[in-house]
């Protein structure tokens, strides 16, 4: 028997190899939950809150001689934080525990601030509910009304107009100067810019009465000008200017330096870069800076009292005669013991808050969205412009299209799409230039 026959016989008698099992398919990846409430988190919060209330009741009622609503609330909150940290630590690591506890603390702070704001707005509107429904409150002044007259006589028209005139003049002075100074501090660094920034930071904490005294001493005593709305606007501008400069300076620092570098690399001068690149990019932040300055200036009372005086009649001329603002009217109304005058004061305060809200809304509309965020109208406009550009590029790359005017008598004829060179009629075949 040959070797070949032996190998063939052994192959026939050998057992068949066992089939190789296919490797198991890997399980699909499950995305990890990184936010939102979970079942264990909700149970931990609920259990910690219930346990904290029980522990505080036990401390204040049986174990310790504690009393008072404020102490009860603070003790219950501290116990809640401690118990919540313990319950969270049973399932999570230390970093997650700290993150959960700080999240609860931040939510608590936000809730307290919102509650305080709602309390102030609601209390002011509730106390002024007696004066706000009357139409004469918005259409009359206090020239023919006294402290003992009912709310159906007199109003705050003179104070509303005075506030609008003063804040408009102050904005005309503050916005150009503030934005120009902020641009100077960011675009022209140096020793003098550091000095100006220091002065601006120091003026941020300037008391309002000092600004009023400065304008009163220079504008009224030295120059001999009368008390007027213009003088009050100058005092308000002194208070608004450092706020606008400081806030605009911080916003302009956030503009990426690559944008200005790209504009200057294209050959744009510095002023064009600032006007077309830096300011449009920071437009929403600059609107916020103007809002902060306006909120600071619109609520000033002492500078207006020193520089504009007091009047109960309507005065629309800011250059002559006393003029009153809403904060000053509120101050004079609420210091009266008469309920009608106090109601007028709270109604004027509600109108002042509404005016600030309207100015805030206008500034946000003018400021628009932040860089990179478009409204629906802007997105549609951008899409239409992109389609027009795509069609124009397609026409430029169309076969047989030349860049010459077809109506010109010297314009060459369009070449066939397959030809690559144009032959000279006087040139022999095979010759080249």
Automatic annotation (TrEMBL):
Give the location in the cell: Cell membrane
Region called Disordered, residue ranges: 9-36, 369-433
Q: Which UniProt keywords apply?
A: Cell membrane, Membrane, Phosphate transport, Transmembrane, Transmembrane helix, Transport
Q: Which domain of life is it from?
A: Bacteria
The UniProt entry, under InterPro entries, shows: MetI-like, MetI-like_sf, Phosphate_PstA, Phosphate_transprt_permease
Q: Biased composition, Pro residues: where in the chain? A: 16-29
Transmembrane segments annotated in the record for this chain = 42-60, 66-90, 102-126, 159-185, 205-224, 230-252, 273-295, 346-367
* Bias type Polar residues, positions: 405-420
Ranges annotated as biased composition (Basic residues) = 374-385
Describe the family membership recorded for this protein in Swiss-Prot or TrEMBL. Answer: Belongs to the binding-protein-dependent transport system permease family. CysTW subfamily.
Q: What is this protein called?
A: Phosphate transport system permease protein PstA
Gene source species: Streptomyces gibsoniae
Q: Source organism lineage? A: Bacteria, Bacillati, Actinomycetota, Actinomycetes, Kitasatosporales
The primary gene name is: pstA
